[in-house]
Specification:
Order of helices and strands: HEEHHHHHEEEEEEHHEEEEHHEEEH
Structural class: alpha+beta
Distance between the termini: 56 Å
Radius of gyration: 21 Å
Strand order of the largest sheet: 1-2-5-6-7-8-9-10-11
Helix content: 25-40%
Number of domains: 1
CATH class: Alpha Beta
Largest sheet: 9 strands, mixed
CATH topology: Penicillin V Acylase, Chain A
Shape: globular
Length: 386
């Protein structure tokens, strides 16, 4: 009798182990990890493929140590800066916002937790902090006749605290989902929401914060851009799809959102002012719109909002028609803030990007080398054909 019972438990354990392994990785792709840049400028590039859970699990396995260190450092730094910010308060904020987060992102978080061994609650707390925080950044998009070769270019400066050591764990993730559009998230190990990124439908996403600290605590019963960006990277085919999603989504807080489209038939860019606390919830401005909030300094084939609009306007006026990646990098540096954590320049037409992360707590991203990354190259290196 004992022997038979032991057999039952033995085969049951085999079944449960097999089921667990199937959930964790039901395809043959294990994820691939590469690097770009050298020395202090080195950036890890992860290529993952499968379901959202599988892609998160692959990331967790590939970057276990980085993920744990990033999340611990980030939470410790924020709590030191805001001592009253307890786990219970962060959990309450998360529970308030979670119903508005696309299931693919939360599934990926579960995979990330299982793969890295990091507590899921810690990952959630890390991701809710940008939702409840005020911060500021810059964005510019130039396309068609505004550039030297007719491409669509966009820059995004992330001006955020450099004390949390996020810059010590830079990471670019190239996602190849089983369903939906492959896309790129320029981020940090362990942070899978998006402050900026690009889909392989040649669409670029960027943001500039406008929520003043005086309005805290914010109403977060709606979609935050960092989760919405990932959803739109999966689903949007062109600029109109993005703008229709913005119109149909319950948004929160105040932001300038920047989008550009590198597809020739639908090429262009748009700037959206989200102002959810106001009666009018959003404003959309496109090419050379005289109603744009930067008027009269508007230009054809350009949209922008930066930390230094007069400098940006003068630079755009001087270089309009001749913009390339180098000039976009120069503009990115010219408008960078004191707390300049990460800067990216995209070529949406060719699916290339140039990215710089801060070095330590005083070396702004704008002062570092902008590392070149070809999305197509790393997909090929990973053996993935689209």
């Amino acid at each position: 009798m004992r022997f038979k019972t032991g057999l039952i438990y033995f085969f049951l354990s085999l079944f449960l182990f097999s089921a667990c392994e199937t959930e964790k990785n039901n395809n043959n792709f294990k994820g691939r990890l590469f690097t770009a840049g050298e020395g202090n400028d080195e950036i890890k590039i992860a290529v993952v493929q499968g379901t959202p859970y599988e892609m998160g699990y692959q990331l967790g396995i590939l970057l276990k140590d980085d993920i744990n260190q990033t999340i611990n450092d980030f939470l410790d730094a924020i709590k030191q800066e805001v001592p009253l910010l307890s786990d219970a308060i962060l959990d309450n904020w998360w529970n308030t916002n979670a119903p508005f987060i696309d299931y693919r992102i939360t599934d990926e978080m579960k995979g990330l937790a299982d793969g890295s061994g990091t507590e899921l609650k810690q990952i959630e707390r890390c991701h809710i902090i940008p939702v409840i925080s005020p911060y500021s950044c810059s964005g510019v998009a130039v396309w068609a006749d505004g550039t030297s070769n007719g491409h669509t270019l966009q820059l995004r400066n992330l001006d955020f605290t450099m004390k949390a050591k996020l810059q010590d764990h830079p990471l670019i993730v190239i996602y190849v989902p089983d369903e939906g559009t492959p896309h790129v998230n320029v981020s940090f190990a362990g942070y899978i929401a998006s402050h900026t990124g690009m889909s392989l439908n040649h669409l670029v996403f960027g943001e500039k914060g406008e929520s003043p600290a005086s309005e805290f605590p914010y109403n977060i019963e709606g979609a935050h851009f960092s989760f919405l960006f990932r959803k739109m990277m999966y689903d949007a085919n062109n600029l109109d799809d993005i703008l229709n999603t913005i119109k149909d989504t319950k948004l929160i807080k105040r932001y300038f959102l920047f989008f550009s489209d590198g597809n020739e038939p639908t090429q262009g860019g748009a700037k959206v002012l989200v102002s959810s606390p106001d009666e009018i919830k959003y404003h959309i401005w496109k090419d050379n719109d005289p109603a744009d909030n930067v008027a009269p300094d508007v230009f054809p084939d350009v949209i922008y909002q930066t930390m230094d609009n007069p400098t940006a306007a003068e630079f755009i006026k001087t270089n309009l028609g001749n913009f390339d990646a180098d000039k976009m990098i120069q503009l990115s540096k010219a408008v960078a803030d004191d707390q300049n954590l990460m800067n990216v320049v995209y070529d949406a037409t060719t699916l290339e990007l140039w990215v710089a992360y801060a070095n330590g707590e005083s070396g702004r991203a704008a002062e570092q080398k902008y590392v070149y990354v070809s999305v197509k190259r790393f997909l090929q290196e990973a053996g993935i054909e689209l």
